[in-house]
Design brief:
heterodimer; A: 235 residues; alpha/beta; 10 helices; 26% strand; globular; B: two-stranded antiparallel sheet; 73% helix
Chain lengths: 235, 283
């Protein structure tokens, strides 16, 4: 579904990604793990078209995306739950969600229907739909950011560090939600520093360090990999 | 009271541009003057009726808005708030001076050696139950309320308005949900510049303008916006009403020369005690 080939990105003269290649197949949960500054967020931004790579190519559903702008990519079915959530603080929950459907057309009934699906998934958002999003706690904002991404009815959902800053109990709930979405057939690309949780739900995983992929394998293989256990799981 | 309509009219499109794209358009007042000039040209020298020439102004300045967006807004749209603010002030200040000089020079040369832009209504006064009211001011007040209401509703309830607010609150967040920032700013400036020019035409129903009053109008607009609260259109209306009342009271009790001083005093008090403006949200 998603293929990234030979991606290189530079910030000025500093390389952020060097020849990164990986793929996400339909229906998979793929985890991209690695330490801070490894280039995980950069990778997601390139996939959504927020950053232009120096070289390399991103293809989605066998189509090369080239320099296509972000709004086009959202329309084709890529959605991102960004690092830091980036919700709109001075808008209500419902307005935030409606904006999630902005790129894919604004048929009232369709938007309504999707709103109801998101509310069914996160009843808490329904209870607070008239509240300003800026007044939410971290966990609630994360739910809102995921709900907003789902409003475009994506084929591929990318999440950037969804567990960051959340209490362990909230992280568990979040991962339950992700697994529920996966069971419904959504393809997920998950970027995490919370390596254990990510590899547990992932079908496959890639380890990114200093801009290159150093390990890849199935979720459970990586969980039991010596190097990963030593470096990321501190076992 | 009706004077407040005039001040609200001067300010509201400046407020929209500032709140949605963080552009401080110093040429705002000059665009008003240009709108007034074109309306004067169309009515007085070409004999068009008032509504028709307002339509003409709207059309011409919608095009001007497209151009303004392409040249002054699009290149800096993706920069940080601070960069946009500073770059736009410098660039549009230059634009204001250039337009002002060209207008002054060519109007004096081709149209009228003593440039003064004004429009008049067929019936300047109407009488309601024995009270004589100025038709111009009533018309201006009605226009200001309607135009501000329309902009407010567009920003609050239409997709493009919501996208504009999203861009203002979190630029990258808006890109992520699939907002096309260029399309949004094009819509805002086409509409905004067009309404700015129409406001200029309405303004000269009461007081004539000369080519060099643009920057002064921008300053008045800024005072109104700061008092009402940046980004709040009802705030612009309220700020305008407040200034209108202050001016009326100052003229009545102290003398007309004092009103600029009173304006600055109010601005000072607002900045000290309520820096976000009367109806401004937290910043």
């Amino acid at each position: 579904m998603l293929a990234v080939e030979g991606l290189s990105v530079f910030y000025g003269d500093l390389p952020a990604l060097r020849e990164v290649s990986f793929e996400v197949r339909r229906g998979e949960v793929v985890a991209l793990i690695g330490p801070n500054g490894a280039g995980k967020t950069t990778t997601l931004k390139v996939i959504l078209g927020l950053l232009t790579p120096r070289s390399g190519e991103v293809s989605f559903e066998r189509k090369k995306l080239g320099r296509e702008p972000s709004y086009q990519r959202v329309r084709e079915g890529i959605a991102l739950v960004p690092e830091g959530r980036r919700i709109f603080p001075d808008m209500t929950v419902e307005e935030n969600l409606e904006l999630g459907a902005y790129a894919v057309g604004n048929h009232r009934e369709q938007v309504r229907e999707r709103l109801e699906r998101v509310y069914a998934l996160f009843p808490r958002l329904y209870e607070r739909r008239r509240q300003l999003a800026g007044t939410f706690s971290g966990g609630e904002q994360q739910m809102l950011a995921i709900g907003r991404a789902l409003m475009s009815a994506p084929k591929l959902l990318m999440l950037d560090e969804p567990s960051l800053g959340l209490a362990p109990r909230v992280i568990d709930a979040l991962y339950d939600h992700l697994q529920a979405l996966h069971r419904e057939g959504l393809t997920i690309l998950l970027v995490e520093q919370f390596v254990y949780g990510a590899l547990e739900v992932a079908d496959r995983g890639y380890v990114l360090e200093r801009g290159t992929i150093v390990r890849e394998g199935t979720g459970s293989d990586l969980l039991h990999d010596d190097y990963i256990q030593r470096t990321y799981l501190a076992l | 009271m009706t004077l407040g309509g005039v001040y609200a009219l001067i300010a509201f499109t400046l407020s929209v541009a500032l709140a949605t794209t963080h552009v401080l358009n110093v040429a705002h007042g000059t665009l008003m003057v240009l709108g007034a000039a074109l309306a004067t040209l169309l009515t007085r020298f070409m004999g068009l009726s008032l509504p028709l020439s307002v339509l003409g102004v709207a059309g011409c300045f919608a095009l001007m808005g497209l151009l303004f967006d392409a040249v002054f807004v699009r290149p800096i749209l993706h920069k940080s708030r601070e960069t946009i603010l500073i770059t736009s002030i410098v660039a549009t200040f230059g634009l204001a001076l250039a337009m002002e000089t060209l207008l002054g020079f060519y109007w004096a040369r081709w149209v009228d050696p003593e440039p003064s832009f004004s429009l008049s209504l067929p019936a300047p006064h109407i009488e309601v139950r024995g009270i004589v009211l100025s038709t111009q001011r009533l018309l201006i007040f009605a226009y200001a309320v309607v135009a501000i209401g329309v902009f407010h509703l567009v920003l609050k309830h239409t997709p493009v308005g919501k996208a504009a607010r999203a861009l203002a609150q979190d630029y990258e967040g808006a890109l992520i949900v699939g907002v096309n920032p260029r399309a949004v700013s094009r819509a805002i400036y086409t509409l905004g510049v067009s309404f700015t020019a129409i406001s200029g035409a309405f303004y000269v129903l009461t007081v004539p303008l000369d080519p060099y009053q643009g920057i002064w109008l921008t300053l008045v607009a800024l005072i109104v916006v700061v008092i009402g609260g940046v980004g709040s259109l009802p705030g612009a209306l309220l700020g305008g009403l407040l200034l209108g009342m202050i001016q009326a009271l100052t003229v009545f009790f102290v003398g007309s020369g004092w009103s600029p001083i009173m304006f600055l005093l109010v601005l000072f008090l607002i900045l000290v005690f309520r820096p976000q403006g009367l109806l401004g949200g937290r910043r």
